[in-house]
Amino acid sequence: MDEIDYDQELPRELIKCVVIGDTGVGKSRLICAEALGVGILPPQPSQKQHVHFPTVFAIDQYHVSQEIRKRGNFKVDGVDVALRLWDTFGDHEFNRKFAYQHAHVVVLCFAINCPNTFKNVNAVWYSEIKRYCPRTPIILVGTQSDWRMHFKNSSLVNVSRSLSKRMQDCSLVTPDMGRQVAREIGASYYEASVVTMWGIHDVFENAVRAALITRRQTRFWSSHLKGVSKPQLQPPYLPDKPDAPGINVEVSTYKENLLALLHSGMCADVEFLVRGQAIQAHRAVLCAAAPVFAELFSAKELVINSGIRTPRRLVFQDALVFGKAGSLPRGFVAITSYNKTWVSDECSFEVQVIIDNFVSHKTFMYILEFLYSGVLPVEACTDELEEAAQDLQICNLVDYVTNVLNNVGYMNTEVHSNFIRGMASCSKKLVNTQMFSDIVFKIEGRIILAHKSFLVAQCEMMAAMFMAGHFKESGVQVVEFKDTNFDAFLKVLEFLYTGQCPCLALDDTLAVMALANFFCLPRLVALCEQVIVKELQVSMASDEMAVAEDVIGYLVESQVHNASQLEAWCIHFISTHYNAICRKCPKLVKNLDTSTLKNIEEKRWPPSWYIVEADWYEKAAEQINNEKIAEKLRKSHKQVRRKQKCTCLRVSA
Ligand SMILES: Nc1nc2c(ncn2[C@@H]2O[C@H](COP(=O)(O)OP(=O)(O)OP(=O)(O)O)[C@@H](O)[C@H]2O)c(=O)[nH]1
Ligand SMILES: [Mg+2]
C-alpha cells in the first residue's frame, strides 16, 4: 500500500489505522469521536435500552467525506500525516483479514467496564493480530473510561447490569491492569471516553507516532521522521470538581394553608352571620390581617358598660367602638360575646358578629379569603366587593380590587407583598400574647401562650394533635413538651405564625432545626440549613479549612435531624477536602459511621483512582526524563571518546 497520500497538495504520511476489539466496546463511537468530533451523552438511570448498532462491514467508511478527510490530516511531531481510520466488526467469528492488510497501526479496544472484553485482548485479539500483521505496532485502548465516574452511581450500574450481560459481575479494569497487559503484548496503553471526549485524540496521535516510528525503522532515508517521539504517557483524567449542592427551600404555602383553615372551619372562634348564614373564622388571623378586626374584637373589653349584659352573653350594638361614641363601623351590626359556660346553648363560638345586610354572603366570603391569603380571583373583584371593603376599612383589599377593576392587576404584586409583610409583622406580635390565645405550652417550666388557628393551619402534626380524640393534647388546655428549648420553640412558633424564616443566630439554629424536624416542618428545616451553610461559607471565605471541625459536627447533627440537604453539603465539603480534613481532625473523621465514610469515599474529589494514577504518572514521567538524560550523557560520552580517539591517532602519526 502506498504510504504517501498524493491526494493532498502537499504529500503527507498516510497512516492506515485499524480499530479492533470485542463487539460493543465502542470502536465505532471512538472513530466517530475522532473523525467527526461527536460524542455521546452520559448514560442515564432512566435509559431503557443500550443503543448499539453493530458494525456490519469492515470498511474504511470514513474515507468518503471531505470533512472527515480534512480532520484526519494533522501534524504529529512536525510530520504532516493523513490518518485513515478503519472500523471493523467485533464478532469473533467474522474474517477481518482484508481490514488488517497494509495496516500501519492497530488500535485494540476493550471496555474498562467489561472485564470479559479485557480477557479477550490476550485470548482472541492478540493472536489474530499476530496472524495477519505480526509486525504492526499495537495501541491498547480502554474505552468507556467515564465508567470510573459513573461506577459509584449504583442505580446506573444496576440498570446497566440488567440491560447488558456484559455488565454482570462487573468490576472496572484498572489502568494498572491495562498497562500490565499492554506490556505483555508490546503495546502502549491509553484510555478514552466518548462521553467526556477525554483521551480520544491521545489514542490516535500516539497511534500515529507508533506507526511513524516503525516506518522510520524501515525507511532510514526519511529524515523528516527523525523528530517523531515514542508514544507519550497519558496524563490521568481529572473529572470536574462537582459543585457544592445548594440548599433548596420549598416555596411557602402559608397563604394556601390559611385558606384551607378558613374553609375547614377548624379551631374557629368567631362566627359571622351574613344575611342569616353563618361563616366561621379565626380572630387571631383576622386581627393580624386587618387593623379593623383587631380594634373590633378588642374594643368590647373597653366598652363593657355600654353593652347589654345578661348572664349568658354580652351584646354590643351601637356602642362605643374604636374609642368613639356612636355606632359600630358601617357593615358591622352587632357583636355578641358569649360567656364561655353558656357557649353550648346558643352558639358554639365565643364571639358572634352580625354583618349588615348590604354585604352578601358571597362578598363577605371573598373578603375573608383575601384576609387569609392576600389574593383573590379576578372574577371576585366587583364593585360590590370594592364598596364593602371601603365600608369595612380594609385598605389593602380596596387597592387590590380597584387595580383589577382598572385593568392594572399587575400592580397587585406589590399590594400582595405589602399585605403579607403587614400580616407577618402583626402575627409575630401575637406569639406568646394572651389576646385570643386558646392554648398554653409549658416548656422548660415556662409558659408560652399560643393560637391554635396558626398552629393547625401551618403544621400538620399540630393539626393532628389538636384534632378531637386523636392525641391526648386535643382535650387539654396546657401542653407540656419535655427536653425542648424554650427559645427554639418560640422561633418555631414565629415561623408558624408568619410563614417566614425567624431571625436566627447560628447558635440557635441547630435547636430550631431539631424542633422543625420533630414537628415535620421541612421548609423550616431547609431555612435552618440555609442559615448554617451561609454562615459556614462566610467563615470559609478567609480560610476554607477553618470550618472543618464544625462541618463534621453539623454532618452528625444533620443526620440525626433528617436535614438531608445540610448532610449532602457537609459530605461534599468533606469529600472535596478529604486529605486536609483527615490530617486536621483524624479522630472526628474516624468516629463517623461506616456508611457515611463509604459515602464520603465514593464522592471524594479528586477521586482516589485519580490520586493513584497521578502518582503513577509523576513517577513514570520522572523515570522517562531520567532515561532521556542518561541517554544524552551516553551519547555525549561516546562523542568525546570518539574525538579523543581521533586526536590520539593524529598525535601518533
Ligand atoms: N458510557 C460510555 N458508553 C459508550 C462509550 N463508547 C461506546 N459506548 C456505548 O457502547 C455502545 C456500543 O458502541 P459501538 O461503538 O457501536 O461499539 P462497537 O465496538 O463499534 O461494536 P460492534 O460494531 O458491534 O463491533 C454505544 O452505543 C454506547 O452506548 C463511552 O465512551 N462511554
Ligand atoms: Mg461498530
UniProtKB/TrEMBL annotation:
Residues 268-380, 437-500 form the BTB domain. Transmembrane segments: none annotated. InterPro entries: BTB/POZ_dom (IPR000210), P-loop_NTPase (IPR027417), SKP1/BTB/POZ_sf (IPR011333), Small_GTPase (IPR001806). PROSITE patterns: BTB (PS50097), RAB (PS51419), RHO (PS51420). GO terms for molecular function: GTP binding; GTPase activity. Pfam families: BTB, Ras. This is Rho-related BTB domain-containing protein 1. The lineage of its organism: Eukaryota, Metazoa, Cnidaria, Anthozoa, Hexacorallia.
